[in-house]
């Protein structure tokens, strides 16, 4: 991009993910150059999936504690979401989400349809999310799910009727963006 120059990275933290302050010169439309600083959080890319059952008009969602949501509003620490996970290094998104579905929900799916790619917070995070859908049946349930103890996960698996899920969005019981996007995708494309 020709409107950028003199890009420098300053490491602020390199713990669970990497936080940099990036300083750069940016040319505005009027031709002027300005020095800008932004913090950029890099935790890798992620995946999420809406599991749906057309016959029963149900969805599989998860409920788990999310410290950043709690930090923002203590009443919102328990988050109801679609199944999601972080990509391992060099892992393709479909492989990741199939693994995450089994770990978190106990369902064994063989494939998933990529329906959206999105940056959830492009002003602060590098994370790109790959959003999938997949139909499930009761016969696909092979385990209780709940996440991995080694990843300190404690996940409640919820099977809910679509009408209940829509009420939960209206009542602000579901406020996770990726979840709302995937449910709206399902409504637009009449998956249920």
Which characteristics define this entry?
10 strands; Nucleoside Triphosphate Pyrophosphohydrolase; 4 helices; 192 residues; single chain; alpha+beta; 2 domains
Structure summary:
The protein is an alpha+beta fold.
SSE blueprint and pairings:
Layout: E1 4-14, E2 18-27, E3 33-42, E4 46-53, E5 58-65, H1 67-72, E6 78-81, E7 83-86, H2 93-105, E8 113-119, E9 128-135, E10 156-161, H3 162-170, H4 177-188
Parallel strand pairs: 4-9
Antiparallel strand pairs: 1-2, 2-3, 4-5, 4-7, 5-6, 5-10, 8-9
Q: What would you say this structure looks like, in words?
A:
The protein has 192 residues and is α+β, with helices and mostly antiparallel strands. The protein has two domains: 4-42, no CATH class; 46-188, Nucleoside Triphosphate Pyrophosphohydrolase (Alpha-Beta Complex), CATH 3.90.79. The chain has helices at 67-72, 93-105, 162-170, 177-188, and strands spanning 4-14, 18-27, 33-42, 46-53, 58-65, 78-81, 83-86, 113-119, 128-135, 156-161. Strands 4, 5, 6, 7, 8, 9 and 10 form a seven-stranded mixed sheet that branches. A three-stranded antiparallel sheet has the order 1-2-3, with no helix packed on it.
């Amino acid at each position: 991009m020709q409107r950028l120059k003199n890009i420098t990275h300053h490491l602020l933290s390199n713990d669970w993910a990497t936080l940099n302050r990036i300083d750069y010169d940016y040319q505005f439309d009027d031709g002027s150059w300005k020095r800008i600083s932004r913090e950029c959080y890099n935790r890798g890319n992620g995946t999420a999936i809406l599991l749906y059952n057309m016959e029963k008009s149900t969805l599989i969602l998860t409920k788990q504690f999310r410290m950043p949501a709690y930090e923002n509003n203590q009443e919102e620490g328990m988050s109801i979401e679609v199944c999601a996970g972080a990509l391992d290094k060099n892992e393709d998104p479909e492989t990741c989400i199939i693994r995450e579905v089994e770990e978190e929900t106990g369902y064994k799916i063989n494939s998933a349809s990529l329906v959206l790619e999105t940056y959830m917070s492009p002003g602060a995070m590098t994370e790109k999310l790959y959003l999938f859908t997949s139909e499930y049946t009761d016969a696909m349930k092979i385990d209780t799910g709940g996440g991995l103890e080694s990843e300190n996960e404690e996940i409640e698996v919820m099977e809910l009727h679509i009408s209940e899920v829509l009420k939960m969005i209206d009542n602000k019981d579901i406020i996770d963006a990726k979840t709302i996007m995937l449910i709206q995708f399902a409504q637009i494309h009449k998956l249920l």
